Structures
1.
Amino acid sequence: MNRRNTVIPGLLCLMLLSVGVAKADEALYQVKDGYKVDANTLQGFRTWRQAACDRCHGANQEGMVGPSLIDSLKILTKQQFKTTLIEGRPDKGMPIWGENKAVMDNLDNLYAYLKGRSDGAITKAHVQPMDQ
């Protein structure tokens, strides 16, 4: 195998990896002043409110009957978060949300909102649009 046959595939792999890294580095949420957020994150907050998650996790996501999501989102991966919502944890009182279209359509937005709260970037539980 000549040098050209090994260098070009190697460069192609590096280019593809850099695209993947750029995708991974994209911000999940945008926040200004601790409570003004982008439209998707705002939709995540609205989904949180609509599903009444605060009944178990508290109005500030710090836990009540259910665990603190501020703490949980520091260790759960996005996939683990999604699996928990889709399958629930009936043995621990967590409902199965997999058949709830409003929640399923906004899983990424809900994750972004809660991750922003967990990261400390979103400092108030009640958020507003960035343009206000």
Note: Residues 10-25 have pLDDT under 50 and may be disordered.
2.
Amino acid sequence: MAASGVESALRILEGRWKLVIVFQLFGHGTLRFSELERAIPGVSQKMLIQQLRDLERDGVIRRTVYPQVPPKVEYDLTAWGQAMCPALDALLEWAALRPETG
């Protein structure tokens, strides 16, 4: 049972950029697409769009489109996405405990 829960959670966050996107939104709140693109060097537009769509579909982030010209689109974490942040903080703390190698 626990293994399937972990597998389900990891499936939502799998992808090279999803955790980076979540961390950016957690740290900065609401961001526009161009701000996310600048904050994540190395991600292509196509990949960022795909990862944002996946996170939105899974209920982690919210996409808000403002009816203006040019269109304004903002992304932020849903309440459920925000609830993940203590677990991500714990993950960072765990990673910092890794012994130095070499």
Note: The longest strand covers residues 61-66.
3.
Amino acid sequence: MSPFRDIDLHAIAHQAMERYGFRYQFSKNMMREVDRLDPKKMLRSGRVDLRGLLWSSIDNVDSLDLDQLEYAERGADQEILIKIAIADVDVFVPRGFEIDRHAEHNATSVYTGIETFPMLPLRLSTDLTSLRAGEDRPAIVIEFVVLKNGDVRRGKIYLALVHNRAKLVYEEVGAWLDGHGPFPQAFTDIPGLEEQVRLQDEAASRLKNFRMEKGALELESLEAKTVMKDDMVVGLVLPSEDRAHHVIENFMIAANGTVMEFLEKAHVPVIQRIVRVPKNWPGIVDVAADLGTRLPAEADVKALSKFLLKRKSADSVHFPDLSLTIVKLLGPGEYMMLEPGKAPVGHFGLAVSDYTHSTAPNRRYVDLIIQRILKAVLDRKACPYSRKELIEHAAWCTDRDKMSKKVERFMQKVAAAVLMRGRIGEVFDGIITGSSDKGIYVRLVEPPVEGRIMGGGERLSVGQNVRVKLTDLDPYQGHIDFERAREGGNVKSSLKGRRR
């Protein structure tokens, strides 16, 4: 029997939440606040009734906290009008209530793979404030027009009532759009939905192509997802991104840009989402040079974008590893208060200058702040937050964003250590993903496990392929240790049928 068979993964997740300053339980008073909420609030007047439109959502198969819906219609001169409905969370989360204070403190939902810790109680995030299929819901609608060349003309923002006709799933719609999946059943059940999704895909393709021409970076994630069964870790899988993901990604970028422009024109302070000039551009230059490409000495997003597209075409198998390396060298995103009339910092990786987070108010507190500012502008009221408050919120939400990733990465290491039990001494193919004062880090090709090289890694550089031997692990601490393997070692990176 494995010495880790009876490990309490949920207890470890709770400890990790506490260690990084998160609250993982909702108080009884909070739940009483939720129970007192009146769902009929959403039927009050003053909203545009758009329940007759063919709204739909695309999300993960297990997602219940649906933040946005999409609708498209063809216009003149090959234009496509897009409407994005964002859940009106503010209706049910009044500022200053204990529910709001809890959300403000955590600032984000945390997804550990073992257990999800929602920012809001489930009765809110998966019910009253979720744009669930078959339900009438209050929303904030963001409109923009996608032009023939993929550029965007910003449109209106207003309060509305919406009705989700179908919750679609990324993998199912993506496989169908890519031509290797079956016809989704929802398209048979709901007349016009197939044409609606095809039009959304056409608009998203235009948006993506236009952004790529401007230098947007096309990167692939290597953040493995823990697969659980009966509270046991049974695998790690790398999520794949398909055309359905690209539809939502490009729509949300355009919607957030529309919100940013709307608030800038209203001359109110706002929180922007930024990625500065890369913290380690010389490191990116070195990685490109090792692969035969010379990048400029000064940060150049278009040159980097062209390099990545070239590498993806030349070696799609190892492109996710390169993506991970580039992401680490780019540095993290952050939130920053923007004064009215000041030039925004911009988002280097997305190649956009005006950007915020406003499309996931069930999951991110910044989005709820932006929602309240939007509603104040629509009501012709003063901004509900002072500049000092927005500066403090931006700093705190940046911190919580970073800490949530620490929790999620730690729990991924815990899950990986449990998965790797019984495999000490085996040799694996890997790629160097990081280098710091704490050591050299490697990610295995299969399974996608990351750990530290405990010896012989001094001359290794980020992005380098390497063979390593698993020497030790501790799931309670999330430690997985490797050492460089001697050339010619027996690699066992894919052991199908092996009992774990």
Note: Confidence is low (pLDDT under 50) at residues 491-500.
4.
Amino acid sequence: MKSPFAPDDDALREAAAAGRPVPSPCISVCQIDPHTRLCNGCLRTIDEIASWGGMNNEARLSVWGEIRRRQGSVR
């Protein structure tokens, strides 16, 4: 299920193209599921969460792509 607050893919690409930071998917529901090893709130791995601040926009867009893929298989 997609969060109603998540930006759509066009908005993410527009932010990157304009040189603005691609926004974090964090929705302040920070719990790692022991089975999937994904955050229940944003569907990122702990490594993706920890690395987010140092990622460039290209890497952030890649993580968003993984989140979109995970949305279809996890929820």
Note: Residues 11 and 22 are 9 Å apart (CA to CA).
